[in-house]
Amino acid sequence: MLMFLDDYSEGAHPALLEALVAGNGGQELGYGKDQYSRLATARIAAQVGRDCEVHLLVGGTQTNLTCLGAFLRSHEGVIAAQTAHINVHETGAIEATGHRIVQIPTPTGKLDPGLVDQALAQHEDEHSVRPAGIFLAQATEVGGVYTGEELGALCAHAHARGLWVYVDGARLAPALAALGARLDLVVACGVDAFFVGGTKNGALCGEAVVLVNDGLRRDFRYHMKQRGALLAKGRLLGIQFARLFDGDDLWYRLGAQANAAAARLARGLSGCGVPPRAAEANQVFVELPDDAATRLATAVRFHVWSHGERGTVIRLVCSWATDEATVDRLIDEVRGALAASTGTATPPGEVRETGGTARAGSGA
Amino acid sequence: MLMFLDDYSEGAHPALLEALVAGNGGQELGYGKDQYSRLATARIAAQVGRDCEVHLLVGGTQTNLTCLGAFLRSHEGVIAAQTAHINVHETGAIEATGHRIVQIPTPTGKLDPGLVDQALAQHEDEHSVRPAGIFLAQATEVGGVYTGEELGALCAHAHARGLWVYVDGARLAPALAALGARLDLVVACGVDAFFVGGTKNGALCGEAVVLVNDGLRRDFRYHMKQRGALLAKGRLLGIQFARLFDGDDLWYRLGAQANAAAARLARGLSGCGVPPRAAEANQVFVELPDDAATRLATAVRFHVWSHGERGTVIRLVCSWATDEATVDRLIDEVRGALAASTGTATPPGEVRETGGTARAGSGA
Amino acid sequence: MLMFLDDYSEGAHPALLEALVAGNGGQELGYGKDQYSRLATARIAAQVGRDCEVHLLVGGTQTNLTCLGAFLRSHEGVIAAQTAHINVHETGAIEATGHRIVQIPTPTGKLDPGLVDQALAQHEDEHSVRPAGIFLAQATEVGGVYTGEELGALCAHAHARGLWVYVDGARLAPALAALGARLDLVVACGVDAFFVGGTKNGALCGEAVVLVNDGLRRDFRYHMKQRGALLAKGRLLGIQFARLFDGDDLWYRLGAQANAAAARLARGLSGCGVPPRAAEANQVFVELPDDAATRLATAVRFHVWSHGERGTVIRLVCSWATDEATVDRLIDEVRGALAASTGTATPPGEVRETGGTARAGSGA
Amino acid sequence: MLMFLDDYSEGAHPALLEALVAGNGGQELGYGKDQYSRLATARIAAQVGRDCEVHLLVGGTQTNLTCLGAFLRSHEGVIAAQTAHINVHETGAIEATGHRIVQIPTPTGKLDPGLVDQALAQHEDEHSVRPAGIFLAQATEVGGVYTGEELGALCAHAHARGLWVYVDGARLAPALAALGARLDLVVACGVDAFFVGGTKNGALCGEAVVLVNDGLRRDFRYHMKQRGALLAKGRLLGIQFARLFDGDDLWYRLGAQANAAAARLARGLSGCGVPPRAAEANQVFVELPDDAATRLATAVRFHVWSHGERGTVIRLVCSWATDEATVDRLIDEVRGALAASTGTATPPGEVRETGGTARAGSGA
Description:
Four copies of one chain form a homotetramer. Chain A has helices spanning about 15-20, 35-50, 60-70, 85-90, 95, 115-120, 150-160, 170-180, 185-190, 220-225, 235-245, 250-270, 290-295, 325-340, 355-360, and strands at about 1-5, 55, 75-80, 100-105, 130-135, 165-170, 195, 205-210, 285-290, 300, 305, 310-315. Chain A has about 375 residues and is of the alpha/beta class.
């Protein structure tokens, strides 16, 4: 069965596994003070090209809750798109640290200055939380990529209103590949803190937090430890990130590979008559007639994203490990499902379930 | 200056103050074990007419956070209308106890079975919080009153899905007056827990929590103490509630008085050509041309609720203490403001502020 | 039955009740923006004699959790004596805001620079919380009063180590009476924030927070609202504190009255051959043979504090309302209980319960 | 420089790394639904030999906070020895989930029924948290191992008082090796939930939670996700635990290896005239004259544990990877440091710092 569920279905990129084997011997200090972690954070800082602090954590939700829990005072909230990962797929992790997410409906999954001002207008006194910062994902949870201009404008607007900007970079490598840019772009746009995603870009696990804004750095290792995010054998993270940011630009290249597969898939879907909604990086969202989606689910694992007016929107995710042949097989399956479809949407009220497998693992 | 900001601008009803004076002497046990608190909770339980536990707390936000914090386990969330008080006017108090509010947009400010099912459909596995219960306010935050049928259907639906129903009764007295009902109705509808509002219905302070569902009662006094809601001199609450639920139905009568004033106001507004949107209990929402609202704000204090397509929606609240003459003066002011109005809405983009006074005290 | 359980068994001082009656009419803004709250906070600020912010809250646990929750970042803890009220009698209220109390065993219930340094020595890196401030109660929970010298030395020491000092002033009036001092002393000693206790000194309810340190003031009303501590009808608090700090020094005089009663009691106990352990303000702790304590409990309500080597330590609390005749009756009861006692301690291992009544209301 | 700081200084056991390489290919479902995680949890459940749920998490603090946060309701606390890891080395992680640790001073680092009753006696009503369960570490944080009898008696006592027992098993393998027992012993003693330590026993990372008590299992994956403890590429954990519990008893053997090294070290120290205080499993605590400890720190990395009356207590930890030659070199260093020592303790008040290296990595 084909699997386009997500970008963490594979193991590690072989080069990382080799590095783990090579670095397994010898004793190291714990909790991120090992030589590999020091090397990795130095390499990332060099890529950022600006004074910053870099810390290595294990996973995305952990990183988001540790960062936002560290940045926010108890009466403060964070502004985020309604579709934000922290708002829909993290089981109230931010709220469990005591903080409210100020949700904003967005047309595209992206925030912009006008949307931020709407949120601020509804939070003018002590009867609401004080918005202190902005959360966004680059690439977004619904497939888009902020351009440098968009991100720069948003950061400038935020700073003018006393807000910081934090970027969830779980899919930062594909996003930067899409922009033809590198880590320094993120900081050049004015982002105050972000993370460099490893899990979805070749690592077994790992997200590297980059704290640029001096005001957000204070005592960050305390917050890591308090949230259970200070890994005892830090070398597991250090070795992987040191390898990803070694001289051969592996981290960047893996992002580009994922995008190339997604682009091939998008072209194929258009060729089938179902052009995808958004495929700016490595996630492809496409709407199929309900019966075609149901049929496709018998051969391919994917997430059902939503039920639209005319059919089912599904998400197909490519990774660095998705090869061309697999993409082409998927396109064949879609073509077959469409050919057998009556093309009509299931009438509202009827069940439109696409099978248990299609929904497995909804972490997104 | 007239003041229609809210229903807590007055002091206590004189009968309550008299009772406080009468009960001031002598020593009593602390923390709600005094004779007056025992009497008050017994009287309320008698009105409820069903096995229950009754506890006296000080204010509405305190009561909501203490109850929901007690009812919810850490991974659980509470379903509420987007307009719910806990969602918009309590400064993230629920989130500060670690819990997410599952917000539902509603057409009217009321929840119903279909809306609940929508929320549940988006919370199917461990990547979202588990909805455990429903929060609603009776009367609602936007002026409506759930009928017994509506509330009964919602509770039945909730129970069938394993959810409890909790009712914020800050304005329960006007709501029950509107329905011609008494406290026993709330329980007959299936509500699992609710509070009997005192602050907005004649008391200096005080909300009486009624725990009906046995599963929600456990160790409630621990939760009260932990949240700072166990008043040392419990007699302050006990005396007031004992008086409100003395033989003369004072609590019920005050709710009816507030409604009568609101009804008079609604009729007057209709007479001016601006029929209010909703005035089922003691809150009146009416849309005025922007310049009329601005002008009115020079003579009357009120809350600007929202800016609509054709003008400004303002909220005018009546209480047990609002007399007919004051209502009539307000109607005169509205008539005058309308007469001087050009009747056109301010073009979007221009500032439509109605003056500092109009927004003071946005606790709602 | 005599009752020496605590200093919140009485109602309000009559002068406060009169003020409440006098100020009951008319409409006022909610949430502490009423004229009485403004007057009260101005009067308290004048007594403090230094630039500061004053806020009115309802009760002691509420005040402690609101203040400490506001002052601490998530990875920070507060240093307190093991006997501190927040550590033993507040049901984990501070922990429920996410913060650890760094407990220090003390010989006397008081903190001093050496004890603070002990705590700091055990908190040197990110594997422990970062101590950010110090909590202490004046008078202490075990009957002592910090002298101006003690408090000044502690504050200077704390500040040199980057710690703020917060004082629980539930019994500040008796403490200042014992020192012959006024509110300005607290600030002169260097305290960063404290509260002026009303509940235990003549009010029906109410504690006035004084924020001196500018770094601790930020957005305090947000924290109040979030914790359910922003009273809708703020006049209830404003009127009482305005009266307590009116020209006749009522707040100070009530503290002195409580102390005078306690001093009379201490002299009487010494006359009975059982000199109290500490009676520097209005709490008297005395050790009685176990059987004497048990016998006394049939006639007097009090708290059993601990079981010592030679008997039972009980706490007897006087208030502004404790008159001389009642004190003398208590002394007679003690004398009688001692006369009937065999004078021997119950052997360890046997039950030494002094009756249900003796333990009622352990809020302390 | 020799390093006896802890048992997580090494990388993975080579067999685990081989397994990771072997299992790296192919796509798997995320979040612990991969084939390896299913295999690992089945193998552990088989060892437990009782109906239970098994979940794989990344690290010890994360596991403790996820479990206790899941088990406790908001007003409940957990009883633990004052020396417990959660109490001293987890940066308030439990408090950050809102819960108080009920600390008990212990003579030996172990809890027993009498100590538990002491804690309960101080928590009798709603003015303190309600103790709901017991935390203990097996082996303890100070080198001891609960015998089966001790653990059984503690569990029986706890259950009779309505408390559950949770065991931190970071060093469970050495503890069970010391007892000549296997995982089924833990459950036979009555433990309600525990974790099987991987990080300190051969894995790169990983702790396997075993939930035995049905009442503690509910929605555990929700809690994992909420705390950031649901690893996206679950195979990283699944492969390692599947290998540790493969047919060759690797997990058990590694524990025994660590103990053998510690026993050799203990014998050597005794031979030097400084018999260790406790060395029941793989941690050795020994008191040296202050100058000897300082000298030793120039050649060996270790933790200074405390400063005793006669000298400095240091901790020396062995792991599965500690070979005999290294132990013998350490013994030689100790012998040399003792020979050069004046044998006198530094007078109290003087600084007795043993150098920066000696304190590095205090996670313990």
